[in-house]
């Protein structure tokens, strides 16, 4: 046999691809906690989407690609009158949910926001339900949507538990594309072979580079990247359903596969990883763990690693508000992940730059005792020079215990501490917050606040009577589960 020829024996699908396909096609969600958390996740995500409609930088992206074309039995985009093809609707829904960096979060070796997958889930479920109803068939129910959410969260989150994509320079929306592809395949009725084909194409796509989340390039792409990934999942599932062949060793193929091309180098020094670290690792099977442990952003529209820092800053507000110009330094202790992703100095160029700067968010909390989406806007920043003055006073350092407990499965803390020092030698107490209000350990405190956040978001878009109607429905688990998806989405038409 020639040594100058590749062996063209077509392999079995990579085990990672097989495992995802088998989970999404066969697993029955039986966790009551996961389903109820999914309901809270649904209302929170939709609320975040409605709040985003206030911002023209977001709404300029929405609607049909060309003209005012209405798609028959089209997918509705909440808070608008758009009726779009499911691919563009997935883009739009994902975009609005993610725009304000206010939806749920998953923190592990990789970070991310699994509710981003609602773009694919809601768009396809709405369209398919309308089609089924028109044929006299039973539509999909919101209970189905909640189960799909659990599965999407699980796929994205388990892939993130032990595997860091950011450390090889890739963005976490790759996991949105994978999860959305899997869920879309299920919704469209793909068989196992077709589902694996779709997933293989999702891996072959590679990923967005993480550079748009970091200095000096942080910008608004981070707000629509998830919608883009979710819509791609719908498209790839459709391609596979049409009979397109898959790429079985999309991950493991030597030289050309995802592992060798995109995952086998460290990000900073570009050294090759050892063999063990150059492929994905898994400590647990896909079940419902991720949804049960999901993190909600309840108090502040802030990158999640900063949630506890902002909470600490707000606590300190009353102690420092009358002594701002007396501040000598501010000590901020954090976890390694926060320092790597959101610690930055220098001029902040745009809203996205500011909501990914822990120093900016802490400064706003100290100055105003709150942090709102409007506080990232250019005019607000320009009119409050004390924000940057305080940023220059900050010293940020890693607390090794915070980093350690951040990764411990039984804790999964996201700790920050702040202490303010004054020119006269006095200082505040050190305020330590280890678990944000949206953490599983603070669910009892957090859920009423999450419901309030949702109700307030409804009122920004609909009449008080209609807002109350939606709110009451969403807080009744049985009524919500048994409502058809098309009727549910109709309630959100503006």
Explain briefly what this protein structure is:
With 494 residues, the chain is of the alpha+beta class. It has helices at residues 15-26, 32-52, 56-59, 86-98, 118-134, 142-161, 173-188, 192-204, 221-241, 258-263, 289-292, 307-320, 336-342, 351-354, 358-368, 378-383, 386-391, 400-407, 443-459, 464-474, 477-481, 485-490, and strands at 75-76, 83-84, 106-107, 111-112, 327-334, 394-398, 416-422, 431-433. 49% of the residues lie in helices and 6% in strands.
Produce the secondary structure layout.
Elements: H1 15-26, H2 32-52, H3 56-59, E1 75-76, E2 83-84, H4 86-98, E3 106-107, E4 111-112, H5 118-134, H6 142-161, H7 173-188, H8 192-204, H9 221-241, H10 258-263, H11 289-292, H12 307-320, E5 327-334, H13 336-342, H14 351-354, H15 358-368, H16 378-383, H17 386-391, E6 394-398, H18 400-407, E7 416-422, E8 431-433, H19 443-459, H20 464-474, H21 477-481, H22 485-490
Parallel strand pairs: 5-6
Antiparallel strand pairs: 1-2, 3-4, 5-7, 7-8
